[in-house]
Amino acid sequence: MSLVAVACAPDVDPERTSAGDDEILAAAEQWVEDQTSPSASAFVDAVATTDDVRWAPWLLDLLRLGRNSATNARISGILERWSGIPATARIPDLVAYGSWLRDLELDGGPDYREFKVAVYSEIDERFGPLLAEVDDQAELAAIQWGGVPLGGIPQLDDPARLPADEAPWMVADEVILGVAIDGEAVAYPLRILLAPRARQRHGRWARDWRSSTAPCAAPASCSTPRSVTSTGRSSPAGSSSIPTS
Questions:
Q1: Where are the alpha helices (H) located in the chain, listed in sequence order?
Q2: CA 94, 97, 102, 103 torsion-angle sign
Q3: Cα–Cα distance between 12 and 82 in angstroms, integer?
Q4: CA-based R_g, the chain, Å
Q5: How does DSSP assign 189-220, residue by residue?
Q6: How far is CA 152 from the centre of its chain?
Q7: What are phi and psi of 163, to 5 degrees?
Q8: Would 235 disulfide with which of 30, 43, 63, 161, CB 3.0-4.6 Å?
Q9: SS (H, E, C) 96-108
């Protein structure tokens, strides 16, 4: 209750003049330098004086880092004011305001990349170099961490296979996607490809599967993943939380 109450409280000091870009960027640079709660609060205070939604990606990244509950609530309050979407709690707010931000295709401005890399390097130092390679800045702003550590879902390569008629997870009217690579034809059930994590048999497919997956619609669609070849053989399908080469 306290989080919602703070998030919905007025987020602008009526006696403070609107901060300019230089003041806001200086506050952001200070946070990148020392990464303390006071510097994060000072940055959020400066952004709160404006109505420029260009700063929304910056705020959302700090909310994702989630180090200070009072700062998190203040960020949610600002994003609520800008978007018109009611703030509730940190994780639902990340989802709601993340969707709003992507719809607007905000890019954060020319100085955003360094800030984003600094925030995500605090979550995992390996995230920084990955984000630094994203060319499209609107895409960079839209990227949000899903909570799984880098490599936290190990991929399963080249598992043993079974005849399709011995696979109890298959159904008679299964909708499949057939792929042939290097002379091997494989059929993957679509209900498995649409499960929360990307599944692939060949590691080089991981990037495409990951980018096209969606949350499960029902528990039945989240059952143990399997794949069936067009020749009647089936195998567990692999999973990975990060792209592989």
A1: 2-7, 21-34, 37-48, 56-65, 69-83, 90-104, 112-123, 127-132, 137-142, 190-193, 206-212
A2: positive
A3: 12
A4: 22
A5: EHHHHTSSSEEESSGGGHHHHHHH----SSGG
A6: 15
A7: -60, 145
A8: 161
A9: HHHHHHHHHCCCC
Per the CB < 8 A criterion, the answer to whether 241 and 148 are in contact is yes
Per-residue pLDDT tens digits for 129-162:
989 999 999 999 999 888 887 777 767 677 666 6
Distance separating the N- and C-terminal Cα atoms of the chain: 45
Beta bridge partners of 104: none
Sequence-ordered list of residues with C-beta below 8 angstroms from that of 232, at least 6 positions apart, any chain: 163, 164, 165
Q: Which residue shows structure tokens 């990464």?
A: 35
Neighbours of 168 (CB within 10 A): 9
Neighbours of 187 (CB within 10 A): 21
User: What angle, rounded to 10 degrees, do the helices at 90-104 and 56-65 form?
Assistant: 150
The residue with tokens 């960079």 is 140
Using CA atoms, how far apart are residues 73 and 90, in angstroms rounded to an integer? 8
Give pLDDT tens digits along the chain (245 positions).
333 333 344 455 555 688 899 999 999 999 999 999 999 999 999 999 999 999 999 999 999 999 899 999 999 999 999 999 999 999 999 999 999 999 999 999 889 999 999 999 999 999 999 899 999 999 999 998 888 877 777 676 776 666 667 777 778 788 878 888 888 877 777 877 776 544 444 344 433 333 333 332 333 333 333 333 333 333 333 333 333 22
Scan for tokens 């993340």, then name that residue.
98
